[in-house]
Amino acid sequence: xxxxxxxxxxxxxxxxxxxxxxxxxxxxxxxxxxxxxxxxxxxxxxxxxxxxxxxxxxxxxxxxxxxxxxxxxxxxxxxxxxxxxxxxxxxxxxxxxxxxxxxxxxxxxxxxxxxxxxxxxxxxxxxxxxxxxxxxxxxxxxxxxxxxxxxxxxxxxxxxxxxxxxxxxxxxxxxxxxxxxxxxxxxxxxxxxxxxxxxxxxxxxxxxxxxxxxxxxxxxxxxxxxxxxxxxxxxxxxxxxxxxxxxxxxxxxxxxxxxxxxxxxxxxxxxxxxxxxxxxxxxxxxxxxxxxxxxxxxxxxxx
Length: 303
Description:
By secondary structure, this protein is α/β, with parallel strands linked by helices. The protein has helices at residues 29-33, 42-53, 66-73, 103-116, 139-146, 183-190, 230-241, 275-280, 292-301; strands at 5-6, 24-27, 57-60, 80-83, 88-91, 94-98, 122-127, 132-134, 152-154, 174-179, 211-215, 220-225, 248-252, 266-270, 283-285.
């Protein structure tokens, strides 16, 4: 891919061609839209009426659960979401697609995490379409999990959560592991064959694809269906709505946003983003702490 250009290479206003005929604006949350205090910048809300008037659908795309995203945005008229890192796509209250994790794999992840708790300060969140579930109930872990999962239940046994084996295959959308020290260190140590006796969840039966193990932040590891990612979810949404890449703007910062960069001709990696995401994007946006998404949208919209 060509070297991404700075966002300032965009023309100054719509009359100069800065404003494409956008139909989708897809926004990662942490490190992208949200500021340094995990808040949506106030100036972003001022742009919503402009985008709504032009028929642009704003799509939060996050590792956060659907209930959390809905709570953040539904009161502002936003009703389309790529939740749980793309394993659940919802448009105007209707499910567009889901990508569940195999029930046997979920059982394996539960056991691996329980065993690892003797050596690492970690906790597991099982993410289902109706809510999220944890066994660990200390205040420190629940505070971290509660930031991303508004519908969160403490249960005595994650193996017994109905979603694990519901319908035979299960409907767990994602297994999220929080490591208080380093997700980048924990992922290979526990889930990707990094040591003796360590599972490699990427390998399935008879060489078939297993599951993805994605470091989605400094402390979070997401384990998902092998085919699930925000890029695939965005393609499914685009097909459902009849929206092409040329009418799609995408903003992201971390590795769980990587595939999404290819699905919008107007792709922006944040200046604070991971180098791999920056290489995959067409443009570099200002940092999230500088309201980078707002700055770029104003330029794209010519307002």
